[in-house]
Design brief:
Blueprint lengths: L6 E4 L5 H8 L1 H14 L10 H18 L2 E5 L2 E6 L5 E6 L5 E6 L1 H5 L2 E7 L8 E7 H16 L3 H6 L2 E5 L2 H10 L2 H18 L3 H29 L3 E5 L2 E6 L4 E6 L4 E8 L8 E8 L16 E9 H11 L26 E4 L3 E6 L4 E7 L5 E5 L2 H6 L1 E7 L7 E7 H27 L5 H16 L18
Antiparallel strand pairs: 1-2, 2-3, 3-4, 5-6, 5-11, 6-7, 8-9, 9-10, 10-11, 12-13, 12-17, 13-14, 15-16, 16-17, 18-19, 19-20
Helix pairs in contact: 1-3, 2-3, 8-9, 12-13
Length: 475
C-alpha cells in the first residue's frame, strides 16, 4: 500500500500565462486590428490602444498565475484560483476517476502540459493544473493515480496492458474513404471549373472565393481529425482505459470502465470493402469542461478510429466482456416497412448487454450495458400495428444513446419487455454487490443466465411467420 504524503502549496509554471494568452490570440489580434481597419491601415501618432491591450492581457495573465496554487493535504487535492472571485476546489484522492495529461500545440513548444483531474461527479468538481512542465505533469499524474488506488507508482504502471493501436497509414486512407474528403474536393473542383467558364469577372471572383472556402474547411476538418487520432493507442489500466494519441497536440486520457454505458460499432459505406469499422463509447456525464476543446467534450468518445472487424471484435471482448454480436432477425413481414434496412436489422441479448444492429447504407451496431438502463419502453406505430410489429427501447442517461430492438413481433416485444425489466434489475444488483465485494449466490447467477437465455430464444435467426407466436419459457 502507498501512503499519501502531504505536498506543500505550489504554483504553476511561470509561462502558463503565455499559453493561456495564446489560446485566445485570435480574439486579441482582432481587437488590435480594429484601429488599423477603421483608419484604412494608417496608424495615428500617439495611438497606444494596441499597447494598452497587450499590457492588460499580460497583467491579467500574471495576476492569474500569482493567485493560482495547488497542494495535496490530508488525502485531498486542493486547487485555489481567482482574485476577485476566489474559487477553492477540493478533490478527495479516493474519488478520482481519471487523470489526463494534455499537451496543446503551443504548450509543447515551451515543454509544458496540462493535468486534468476528473471525478465524474459534477460539472465543476474537476481540477485543472494548467500548465506545468511535461516531466512534472507525468510525475503528478502517476502519483495521483497511485495514491487514489492505494498502490505504488511501479505497481500502477506495471498493471497497464496494451489493447489496440491504430495504424497511421490505414487512418490516412480511412479519412479519405469516409466520403467527406472526396465530396469536398469534387465540390471545390466544380467551383474552380465553373469560375473559368463564367465570363464576368464578378462571378469568377465569387466562385473562386467559394472554392477557397471549401478548401480551407477541408484542410481544417482533416487536420483536426488527424491531429487527434494519429499515433492512437488504447491500453487497459486499473483505473480504466488509457487512451493516447495526437500529432501536434497530444492527449493521455483515462476513461473509467464504469462510466461506459454503451458501445457503438460503425461501418461506413466506403469502408465496408476493406472490412474496417470504428468503435465509439458513450460516456456517462459527458460534457464540456472549462478549457477543453470541443472535440474532447462530446458524450461519444472514439475508442478505435479505424480497425478491422477482427481487431474490433477482440477489442470489444476485452472492454465489454459478455457482449455478443446481434443475430436475431425480425419477422420476414417487416420487409414491407423496412425495405432498405431489413438486411441489417438484428438484435441480441446476454446477461449483461443488449445489442441491436440498424442502418440502411451504413451498418451501426450498438451495445448497451443492462445495469445502465434507465427505462424499457414499448412503442408501436400505425404501420407496425397493421403488421403486428413493435419496437422495444432500452434507454440510458443521455440523449444520443440507447438501443432500439426494431420491428419485432408485438407479442414477442411485450414478453421481452417484461423479462428485460427483471434482467436489468439483476444486472444492477450484481453491479452493486460486486462493487461492495460481497458474495453473489449461484442461484442468482443461474437465474440471470436462464433469463438471458430465454430472451435469446426470443431472437431466432429467421422468423418467417410470427403468427405462430414466440415460445415463452414458464415463469
Amino acid at each position: 500500500m502507498s501512503e499519501t504524503p502531504n505536498l506543500p502549496w505550489q504554483r504553476l509554471h511561470p509561462l502558463s500565462p503565455v499559453i493561456q494568452l495564446g489560446r485566445s490570440a485570435v480574439a486579441v489580434l482582432f481587437v488590435l486590428a480594429i484601429p488599423y481597419i477603421s483608419n484604412g491601415g494608417r496608424q495615428h501618432s500617439g495611438d497606444y490602444f494596441d499597447v494598452v491591450i497587450i499590457a492588460l492581457a499580460a497583467v491579467g495573465g500574471l495576476i492569474s498565475w500569482l493567485v493560482t496554487r495547488w497542494c495535496v493535504e490530508g488525502g485531498t487535492l486542493r486547487v485555489e484560483t481567482g482574485l476577485i472571485r476566489r474559487r477553492h476546489t477540493q478533490v478527495p484522492l479516493s474519488r478520482i476517476q481519471s487523470v489526463d495529461v494534455v499537451r496543446p500545440a503551443l504548450a509543447r513548444i515551451f515543454g509544458l502540459a496540462e493535468v486534468r483531474v476528473r471525478t465524474g461527479v459534477a460539472r465543476d468538481g474537476d481540477a485543472r493544473l494548467a500548465y506545468v512542465a511535461e516531466e512534472r505533469a507525468e510525475t503528478i499524474r502517476a502519483n495521483l493515480l497511485a495514491w487514489s488506488h492505494g498502490v505504488t507508482i511501479e505497481e500502477a504502471e506495471s498493471l497497464e496492458q496494451p489493447l489496440a493501436a491504430v495504424r497511421n497509414r490505414r487512418l490516412l486512407l480511412a479519412v479519405w474513404l469516409q466520403g467527406v474528403v472526396p465530396f469536398e474536393i469534387l465540390l471545390a473542383v466544380g467551383f474552380l471549373v465553373a469560375a473559368f467558364l463564367v465570363p464576368t469577372p464578378g462571378g469568377r471572383s465569387s466562385l473562386l472565393g467559394t472554392a477557397a472556402v471549401w478548401i480551407v474547411l477541408l484542410v481544417v476538418a482533416v487536420g483536426n481529425r488527424l491531429n487527434s487520432q494519429l499515433a492512437y493507442e488504447v491500453a487497459e489500466a486499473p483505473d480504466g482505459l488509457r487512451i493516447r494519441g495526437g500529432l501536434i497536440g497530444t492527449v493521455v486520457e483515462t476513461l473509467p470502465k464504469e462510466r461506459i454505458q454503451a458501445l457503438r460499432q460503425i461501418e461506413p459505406l466506403w469502408w465496408r470493402p476493406f472490412g474496417w469499422v470504428r468503435v465509439d463509447a458513450d460516456v456517462a456525464g459527458g460534457q464540456r469542461r472549462k478549457g477543453e476543446d470541443r472535440g474532447m467534450s462530446g458524450q461519444m468518445r472514439i475508442l478505435l478510429p479505424v480497425a478491422t472487424r477482427k481487431e474490433a471484435a477482440l477489442f470489444l471482448a476485452e472492454v465489454a466482456r459478455g457482449a455478443l454480436p446481434p443475430n436475431g432477425r425480425p419477422p420476414s413481414r417487416a420487409h414491407i416497412k423496412t425495405l432498405l434496412s431489413y438486411h441489417f436489422l438484428a438484435v441480441g441479448l446476454t446477461p449483461g448487454w443488449g445489442a441491436a444492429c440498424t442502418g440502411r447504407l451504413r451498418r451501426t451496431t450498438t451495445w448497451v450495458a443492462l445495469n445502465k438502463v434507465q427505462s424499457v419502453r414499448w412503442s408501436q406505430g400505425p404501420v407496425q400495428r397493421r403488421l403486428k410489429l413493435a419496437t422495444l427501447h432500452l434507454d440510458v442517461a443521455g440523449r444520443r444513446v440507447g438501443v432500439s430492438l426494431k420491428d419485432r413481433d408485438s407479442l414477442e416485444a411485450h414478453q421481452m419487455g417484461e423479462q428485460l425489466t427483471a434482467l436489468c434489475r439483476d444486472a444492477r444488483q450484481l453491479d452493486r454487490i460486486t462493487a461492495k465485494g460481497g458474495p453473489w449466490s449461484a442461484a442468482d447467477r443461474d437465474h440471470q443466465m436462464s433469463t438471458a437465455a430465454a430472451l435469446g430464444s426470443r431472437c431466432p435467426q429467421d422468423q418467417s411467420d410470427a403468427s405462430q407466436g414466440p415460445t415463452v419459457p414458464p415463469g
